[in-house]
Amino acid sequence: MRICFESDTCLYRMVIAGLLLKQVLMSETYSATKRGEYSAVVHSNKRIGERFYRLGLKFSDDGAKAFGKARAGQFVQLDLSDTPLPPVEKIPDDLTDVAGRKILLRRPFSFANVTTKDNKTTVDILYCVVGPATLRMTTLSAKKSVSVLGPLGNGFWVPDGKKTALLVSGGMGAGPLQHLAKILTADFPDIDVIALAGARSAEALPFERQLDEISQQLGFSLPEFAKYGVESLVATDDGSAGFAGPVTDCLLEWLGRHKSAGKDMVIYSCGPEAMLARVVEIAKQKNIDCQVSMERRMACGISLCQSCAVKCKTAGSNETFYKLCCQDGPVFDGLEVAWGIG
Question: What is the pTM of this model?
Answer without folding.
Answer: 0.88
